[in-house]
Each structure stands twice: as C-alpha cells, then as structure tokens.
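Input chain follows. Return structure tokens only.
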Amino acid sequence: MQHRTQSADVVVIGGGLAGVSAAVAAARLGSRVSLVTNRPVLGGNSSSEVRVWVVGATAHGHQRFARETGIMGELFLENQYRNPEGNPFYWDQTVLDLVRAEPNLQLHLNTDVRIVTMQEPADGEESPSQRIASVTGWTMGSEIETEFVAPVFIDCTGDGLVGHLAGATSRIGREGRAELGEPWAPEVADDELLGSSIFFYTKDAGRPERFVAPDIARDIRDTPILTNRIIRTGDNGCNYWWIEWGGELDTVAENEQIRDELWSVVFGIWDYIKNSGEFDADTLTLEWVGSIPGKREYRRLLGDHTLTQNDLLDQVDFEDTVAFGGWSIDLHPVEGVYAETAGAQQRFSNGTYGIPFRSLYSRDVGNLLFAGRNISASHVAFGSTRVMATCATQGQAVGTAAALIARDGLTPRELAGQALPLLQRTLLREDAPVIGITTDDPDDLSRRATVSASSALDAISTLEHLGSGERFSLDRDVAILVPVAPSLDQITLLVDAARDTTLRVELWSTGKRQNAVPVEHLLDGAAEIAAGVGVSATVRFGWTPEIEQNAVLVVRANPDISLLLTEGHPYGLLVLTAKHASDEVFDDHIPRSRTRRSSTGTPGSSAAEASR
C-alpha cells in the first residue's frame, strides 16, 4: 500500500460530464487540476457502464436553437464526427481524450473519495469559516491512498458526498408547497425521490436463440407494467427510461437492493419478449445489461440561492447567470416501474432559463463549489436541471470560477459579488453556455471588427424565382420565427390563390429574447390577394422593438391559399404549423417544407421574405 499527497489549484471530485467540464475549464485557464472519480471510465451516467443518452436544453427539439456551446458543445461535435452510430465505448474514449489533452489536468480513475479533512481555525480567529483542507481517495486495484490538497474543491459526485462529509447544508426529498411557493410541490414535505434505472441492449443473432430466465426475473404479468408501459422489440437503452425504481428508498443506502430489483425487472421484460409469444423475437438475444443503477436523485447541496419551479417557468433573468437549461421539469412517480400512472409528469418553460452562480457554491463551506444533479435547486426545479448536458454547462461555470478563485484568492461568494463581471467575461471568452449576458470586454476584438460579404441575394426581386413547385395548403395556421434587429417592416409570401381572398398575418412577441414560441399578440396585418398562381402578398407591420429579439408571424389558415415552398434549409430559420386548423398550438416544422435566408439576414419561410 502506498500513501501520497498531491497538491493542486483545483480538485474536482466526480467524473461525470459535470466534473469533466469543470476540470477541463479550470485547466484551460492555467490551474493545476486533479480530477478524481471512482469509476474506471469517464462520463458518469452517459458512460458505457450506464448508457443514458446525453440530453439538455434542446429537450428533444422542444427548445429550438438551444444546443449547448462550450465544452459540452465540443463533445457533441467530436462525438458526431467519431461516433455517428452512438457506440457507447467510442463515447468513453471521446470524453477521455478531451481530458487527457489538457497538460494541467491529472486524472485519477478508480479512486473513491471517502475522507474530507477540514482546515484548522487560524490563531485568534473567533468565528472560523468552514473550509476544506483536503480530500483523500483510495485507488482500487493499485492500493494507493492519495490526499488531494487545494484551495478550491468542486463536488460533482452527484450524491453530494464531499459536501456532506464537509458539513455543507443539504436537502434530500421534496419541499412542501408553501416553502418555496411551487405549485408542483406536495402539500407536505417528504423524503420521496426519483428512482434509479438499469437498461439493456439487444441484437439479432441471425439464428434462433432461446432465453432461460434467471431466478431473479420477475413475472411482469403480475405488475402494472403491461398496462401502463410500452414494450417493443426494437427498443434499447434509454428507450426503456421508465425501468425505474427505488424512489421510496434511500437511493444511496439501498443501492444494492435497488440494483437487484431493477435486474429482476429487466430480465422479466426480456423473458416476456422472448417467451410470451406476443413478439417476433425468435432470433433476438441480449447483448448487454447494465450492472450499475443510473441514479437520478439524492442530496442537493444548498447555496446562496435555491432554484425553484417558478425561476424556471418564469425564466427569471438572474444578474449572476452563468449557465442555462431547457429540459422540461420532468418528475416521475415514486413507485417507478410499478406505478399505476404515467411514467413522467412534464412541464416546459417557453424557452431556456438561466442558472445563477449563487446556486453552484455552498452557503456554509467557504471553498466548495458544485455542479450536476446535486446543485442548489428544489426537488421540482431539479427535475429539469439534472440532465447531463445541463450539468455540463454548470460544470464549465464552476470550473471557470474555481480557476479565478484559486488565482485571485477569492471566496465563491466574493466572486458572485464584486468580481461577477470578471467571471461572466471569462465565461463568454471561453464560449461557455451563457444566455442573455453581455459584458464590456476591452480585449474583445470583435467589437471593432467589420464584416463583408462577396455577394448578397435581393430577396424581393428574386422571390418569384425561388418557388420549388411544391405547395403547402394553408388548411391550418402557420408560424414563422424571425429575428428582429432592429425592426420588422413587412413580410412577403409567394402564394397560389384559388379565388380573390384576404391573407391575414399576426405579429406575436416571444416573451423572452431566447424564446421561439408566440407568447403575446402585438399587431394584425392583412393583404388582399387576387386569384392567381405565384402571387406576391406583402403584409406591413413597421414594428421596432425596444431591444433586438425574436418575433413570430402567425399566418392564419385560409383554404383558398397555398404557400409556395422554397429550396434549402438556411440556418436560423424556424417554421411551425398548428396541429389542426383550429389550434393555436404549433408543431415544430412544416412537413417537407423548404426554407431560405433573405438578403437582409432575417429569414423567410415558404416563399417568404421578412425585411427590417
């Protein structure tokens, strides 16, 4: 057995995407970083050991243009290049390569931190603040005990273990409704949690394969599963996200029991698929079954601000915003897979929401920050902030903060106050996922740059040439999202009209600059159209908002009109259709639509041109 001491500027405990992002962010800013994780691979729940899909603010397309930038964005792009088929082992190596590329970062895999040593109070200090002096980890298989010493520590363990051992205030379970004024909270606080999950993968062996169920397999015909859940032979991995259990237990203390129960469900489902006679599964076999429960919830460490349901749904503009999310508030029944109700209750905000720095450091341990599912959020808000790409945005924020704290001798609270502009300016320089924040950075050369183009498209003069020949019948409302900077004078659409008629278009604001949904009705416009083919219809608005923002043009249904569709899919354009002609709820695309960008840089839709 060996014992050693390692000194660093920043120690990150936890190798999920939050911890990886925190460690890389701090290392890139010059800090000496120790990244310590108790697993043999990086990625946490996204790794090949658990295989949860990485999701975030885009919310499977509900929040358009919300893809994370920064370190998480790098991982998305690199994985898309290396691993278009989504091989989980290739993903492990993509994350590992990101970490090993940083010369300032030392990685410690298979190292379980279980000891936290606090600093002794200074001589004459009457009210010593709690501060971590070191954490100690045991590297399995190597018999090495390492004490990690640093001025700043980041808890990305998910379960909040380091914060707990350091005496940081934390919360487990659900707050009562009156405590934070959250409509989705229970009337009375309790200790219920979201459960854990284990997934499985299958493959076609190309020949008949039998399955003899192990003794642990549960007969799912005796459970609510067949009534309340969907089982399909083509589904794998996170398609079975609803294989969840343990929310009524202590998800840490009873982790072994939870794993065994989840195994019984997985093998019970597979036994039913293979042997019930209800599925065409003769040649299918199990390729992989997880051994580690993917844990959703345990401790939430408390900071100077606790994010709430209302913060997310109201999209509160925090002065100290350093990250963002957009996943729905996604809460599951405590009974998990055995619930008689749906597997999830979801509520989306109108767009992305900000995460304040004050929710990412401990209110009572002076050198502890955190990122991931253990941040300072209520149980309801945590239902959104817990997804991994959002955790990664938090990780980049606290890694950046930790580097500044270590360099300048600050506390997290001081950085959140007097030095907040420094933190946000640094995050923006590093392409971090921050929305709605601008800073006056004297070193930002783009403020003095000019942009030129080799050519431009005069959209109005060439509009009649852009129709692809495809038509979209205006049998339902259509909405076109356009950025307005600085004004929206008019919109022109190319249409076919069966008879003389009126085209009606409404102008709606989106409520927040980052949103892409109609929220407030502002103006009505109309154009009289003569019967004909390829008729240009111009509706004028002359609207200049106080600040640059998105707007939605709602083209009302008219059975006498068809919109001409254009070629191409230019960036920055969003077109929505109502599900039915009478609805004011929009889908996220027009089937087989074609879109393009206008000469002014604001987008058109169908054969449309929106001018400033």
